[in-house]
Amino acid sequence: MKGWMGKTKLFFVFTLLAFFLAGCGMENLTALDPKGYGAEKSMDLIILSTLIMVGVFIVVMLIYVIVLIRFRRKKDQEDHVPKQVEGNHKLEVIWTVIPIILVLIIAVPTVLATFDLADDSKAEELINVNVKGNQYWWHFEYPGEEIQTSQDLYIPTGERVYLHMLSSDVIHSFWVPSISGKMDVNAENVNTMYIEAHEEGVYWGKCAELCGPSHSLMDFKVIAVSPEEYDQWVNDMQNVDPDAEPENAVAQEGQELFEAKNCMGCHATDSAATGIEAGKINAPVGPNLTNFGSRSNVAGVLEHDKEHLVDWLLDPESIKPGNKMTGQYDELSQEEAESIAEYLLQLQPSEITPESAGN
Amino acid sequence: MSMTSAQKSGFGATLWDWLTTVDHKKIGILYLAGGGFFFLLGGLEAVIIRIQLISPENNFISAGLYNEMITMHGTTMIFLAAMPILLGLMNFIMPLQIGARDVAFPFLNSLGFWLFLFGGLLLNLSWFTGAPDAGWTNYAPLSIQSPGHGIDFYVMGLQLSGAGTLMGGINFIVTIVLMRAPGMTYMRMPLFTWTTFVASILILFAFPALTVGLFLMMFDRMFGSAFFDAALGGNAVIWQHLFWIFGHPEVYILILPVFGVFSEVFPTFAKKRLFGYTAMVFATFLIAFLGFMVWAHHMFTVGLGPVANSIFAVATMAIAVPTGIKIFNWLFTLWGGSIKINSAMLWSLAFIPSFTIGGMTGVMLASAVADYQYHDTYFVIGHFHYVIVGGTVFGILAGLHYWWPKMFGRYLNEVLGQISFWTFFIGFHLTFFIQHFLGLMGMPRRYWVFLENQGLDTGNLISSIGAFFMSFGVIVFLINIIYTTIKGKKAPGDAWGSGRTLEWTISSPPVHYNFKQLPLVRGLDPLWIEKMEGNEKMTPAEPVDEIHMPNGSILPFIMTIGFTIASYGFIYQTGNKYWLIAVFAGMAIALICMLIRSLKDDHGHHISKEELERVGD
Q1: Nearest C-alpha of chain B: how many angstroms from A121?
Q2: Who among A54, A87, A322 is closest to B276 (CB)?
Q3: Residue B90 forms part of a structural domain
Q4: How large is the average pLDDT for residues B84-111?
């Protein structure tokens, strides 16, 4: 029997595999390559605790391997009776005290970081965003700027942005792994967290609390642009003319259909809707489409092009099971859907788009 | 009674015997069989989950069915597989270890088993009309808003089986306090008995929190209350608190008994007494005590604020200390021993590195800010499978291999045992190690699909391949059981030759009254003491005399059927009030059974001295 040999080899393979995979993970999604303040804080603790724990593991495995090599029963020892040891006070004190010290080494920075990330004393001076989680999309209001958007959250790099989060239905959880750890979005109370991105980029956000059949499709993006670009974006969004006529004829037809098919009942195309104020978190019935033409994805997960948008309009249920849009509007023909898609995709009030974030 | 009917052959008599039995050994076997059945169901669900996640944007099952699958996998494995199998081992072994002839409340023991079984069956009936789909944690408001009756089945099924578990817990506590053989002081009890005792205390205090939560959930869903409805002034976070006040101790209910198993297996196969027995006992208590102080570490991201998060983070880390004490004590039990490696020992030895990894990630998770990243991702999935599979399942399998000869009189086959060990062990690490990284790479748990081009493909594929290895291991173990039952090698009383505790002093399998004469216990590891002094047998603590044993009864079974009918009625009366008939009829059946039980005297039966002498040993 070479039990322990097989086991060590196995662990060696696993460790190699682990390092290989640790290097992977998609940029701007993985938590292993932090690009924001919260994610860095978490990563520091992850590294610290991993190092200590690997140390403990090595000690345990060392004793384990020695035991299995030295104290296996040999053929001629069948009747050998080992000394019956009751215990050893010195040893027991050692393996009680050392773990306590190790735990303290992890506990102190943990407590410090916990209070650091919960600090909202400066919230009023900085950018605040009201976040509303809905089955299965996200809404973002900027009460200071009096604008709103859905699915793509624009923030300036290098600044703390405070998020005040509430759910309109079940619990969701706001998670942008590369920028920050997650926080739950409850229906009964507003949770506040802040995010800060160090560099420009389109960061993947995920819902991390089971919220129904399409839980795994409730993706969103945080688009971090330079402070100048952010100011321009805010300015553009504040000055949208919702009644502007599209230039091309198909899109004009789409605009008419958008009204005729009652899309407007749920979807606004005006960013500066009324009723946005601090401390009061609203959400429209459906995502705000003001800058839909500049979205990074259709419905959060599909590629952003006309073909996918038409698919979505014709049968949202097949893409996001359990969504609240299915069945809320008269059936569309292929042509009608294409016209509406044409109209929606030309809604680009700002030059600041996901491309501005560099990727 | 039960003995005479067992002697009659014929299917009807055998069935009647098992339905009415109050023998702790038979109930133990029933628990093992019931738990084993649900383990296979839960395993099947796990394989379906892993097939769905074998490639990105897979469409093997629909989103709704996927959520049902994960919910049922978790619920089944925790409530209907792991815990009942442990209760089965406790039921069979613990009374033997303390030198008792049965548990304190044999009738209650039988009722507890049937409630568990029918609770589990009721829950699984939901597959026909739509299973629960809000995760095994069943968070409100998702669970409140879930359409159909799935969640109702969850609530009623767990309420039934939970009541059964609570009865089991109380029963074990009383048994250990009152029924130890002469000389068996507390500090001479085997570690498995100790951990049974402590786990039972945990059951006693933890399950009521679940019961309350389930009742509130039941009233919200069936009778229009609004405990968890924020719109009507309720609060859904309360459910999370109630669930985890139960749920965290539950983790220790699952792990402490197998700590006991390992503390029996290591000394037996190292031929050396448990190192630091006193420290082991106190560490067990400390883990149990701290286990009630840490529930909110499941809720770091709920928004409880930095004070609560810090307190619960530090409290959680503290549990690492007594757990570490245990690991080192086991290692030093082996140190200097004469180690014989067989299947039981393989599972136990494999537990040490596997569980250490699970414990390490546990400390990592306790760091609240780091948890903001881990929480609700595959990192957590990896962590708790390392603890529950690498701890509880390995422990169960070690315990089964170790005590199989005692329970059934035959050794499990060694070759098949090692095949199933190695495939399961390799599969386990393949499946779950990679999941830590998947989580950090941005894969939340309970995801029906993961998207293409997000760097998650390889990890998920490896994980799914591992699941097939594990399945293979389980199938080989099943074959082993069948093979052993037919052709297994017969085992003597002291099946391993180096047994130390009282269960090895009696025949394999034991007679239904266990001990012809109660043994006199002269210290820790009583059999070992006698062996070292050259005695072949235990010194009896009493002369051969009449033995008083409880009678079997069909009442627990009928009572359970009554409760099950009533539960079914509760679930469906929301739609159609005629179902209330089922509620009343079912409750009437149960109450009548209780009445009969209360009014009809049953003094049990006696095994005469002559019969005992005829049987010999």
Answers
A1: 14
A2: A87
A3: yes
A4: 97
* pLDDT higher than threshold 70 for residue A2: no
**Sign of the alpha-carbon torsion through B307, B309, B312, B316:** negative
Subunit contact A181:B364, Cβ cutoff 8 A:
no
Sign of CA dihedral A166, A167, A173, A178: negative
Which of B189, B255, B285 has its CA nearest to residue B399? B255
> Is the bond into A136 cis (omega within 30 degrees of 0)?
yes
Please indicate whether, in this complex, the C-beta atoms of B64 and A213 are within 8 angstroms of each other.
yes
Give the Cα-Cα-Cα angle B557, B562, B566 (nearest 5 degrees): 145
Establish if B232 touches chain A: CB-CB under 8 angstroms: no
Contact A181 B371 (CB under 8 A): yes
Find the residue in B nearest to A41 (Cα). B369
The CA distance from B327 to B83, in Å, is 22
Beta bridge partners of B259: none
CA distance B118 to B75: 15
Closest residue in A to B238 (Cα–Cα) = A188
C-alpha–C-alpha distance, residues A42 and B127, integer Å:
41
Q: What is the DSSP string of A43-73?
A: HHHHHHHHHHHHHHHHHHHHHHHHHHHHSBP
pLDDT at residue A145 is higher than 70? yes
Of A60, A80, A92, the CB nearest to B276: A92
- Interface probe with A: pick from B440, B453, B527, most Cβ of A within 10 Å: B440
CB A202 within 8 A of CB A168: no
Distance of CA A160 to the CA centre of its chain: 17
Rg (CA), chain A: 27
User: Residue A16: what pLDDT?
Assistant: 61
Q: Based on the structure, what is the number of domains in chain B?
A: 1
User: How far is Cα B31 from Cα B169, in angstroms, rounded to an integer?
Assistant: 14
* Residue spans per domain, chain A: 3-70+89-117, 249-357
Residue with tokens 């070292």: B532
Flag if A21 and B434 touch (Cβ within 8 Å).
yes
> Above 0.85 for ipTM, yes or no?
yes
Which residue in A30, A43, A99 is closest to B455 by CB distance?
A: A30
B358 lies in a domain? Answer: yes
Range of the domain at B287: 18-553+602-615
- DSSP three-state, residue B447: coil
Q: What's the pLDDT at A120?
A: 87
* Angle formed at CA B385 by CA B382 and CA B389, multiple of 5 degrees: 150
CATH architecture for segment(s) A249-357:
Sandwich (2.60)
- Three-state secondary structure call for residue A156: strand
What angle, 0 to 180 degrees and rounded to 10, lies between the N-to-C axes of helices B24-52 and B11-20?
90
Q: What average pLDDT does range B314-329 have in this prediction? A: 95
| Chain A positions in Cβ-Cβ contact with residue B429 (cut-off 8 Å) | 10, 14
* Domain containing residue B407: CATH number: 1.20.210.10
Neighbours of B533 (CB within 10 A): 8
Q: Which of A18, A32, A42 is opposite residue B372, by nearest beta carbon?
A: A42
In contact, A338 and A356? CB cutoff 8 Å = no
> How would you classify residue A190: left for phi > 0, otherwise alpha for psi between -120 and 50, otherwise beta?
beta
A294 touches A355 (CB < 8 A): no
Q: Give the gap in angstroms from C-alpha B25 to the nearest C-alpha of chain A.
A: 32
Q: Residue B289: pLDDT above 90?
A: yes
Using CA coordinates, name the residue in chain B closest to A175: B373
The answer to whether B455 contacts A171, with C-beta atoms less than 8 Å apart, is no
In a domain? residue B192: yes
Which residues in B lie closer than 8 A to residue A54 (C-beta atoms)?
360
Among B134, B236, B371, beta carbon nearest to A188: B236
| Closest CB to B444 among A91, A95, A208 | A208
- Whether B571 is covered by a domain: the verdict is no
Structure tokens given for A174: 């706001």
Q: What mean pLDDT value characterizes chain A?
A: 90
